[in-house]
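Below is one such protein, fold included:
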Amino acid sequence: MSTEIATRFDGIEACVFDAYGTLFDVHSAVAQCRDRFELAPNAAATMSDVWRTKQLQYTWLRALMGRQHHVDFWQVTGEALDFALDTAFTDSSPPSGLRQALMDSYLTLHTYSEVPGVLKRLKDGGMKTAILSNGSPSMLEKVCESSGIDTVLDAVLSVEAVGVFKPHPSVYRLAVDRLGVSGPSAVSFQSSNAWDASAASAFGFRVAWCNRFGQARERLPGNPDVELRSLDPLPGIVGV
């Protein structure tokens, strides 16, 4: 995998982004509520980590259990939060109103600092831009509107259109079909989740893994084409 910013993807017709963890800071949900509910910083961080971990695990497990067990990402997010709250408050009940406040905050997640500018540069340069996410349509609509990036996206694609979570190949196929590109190799896909980046590469996308936190590379099929620490270099990589 190249870490050179000089890497160039040729023939790209669309830039497609994972949402949670790539464009939106998933830990900003707990951060928005920490002071209001007087959560200790260490406890808040642990709760946020458990919430995110269980959220992903539940998507994978439900996908393996079959379509009859599929529910949308809003329900998965709530169930994962319940597990996180039980983990964090073993000897007492969570503060009144905390659960609802955290769920509400998931609809107003903060973008990472470079995201609005990068999306605008891509859009102004004539590149199609889209989200491809596990999120439910209503979740994605609200968080995109709250952050203001809805104006620089051509499409917001949810796995609900195919009824299974990532990394099922039908999810990645959705971007090819809906965006009308010539094929998978015409898509530059960006994700901060290493497993998502690997799966998208195995499907045939050109992939920029936005490794924001210096995580180890996954040992999975598929190999992202470039590893970045932020999305800033992306317009240059796709020739915009």
Remarks:
- The domain at 28-105 is CATH 1.10.150.240 (DNA polymerase; domain 1).
- The mean pLDDT is 96.
- The CA atoms of residues 118 and 232 lie 6 Å apart.
- Strands lie at 14-17, 128-133, 155-158, 187-191, 206-210, 226-228.
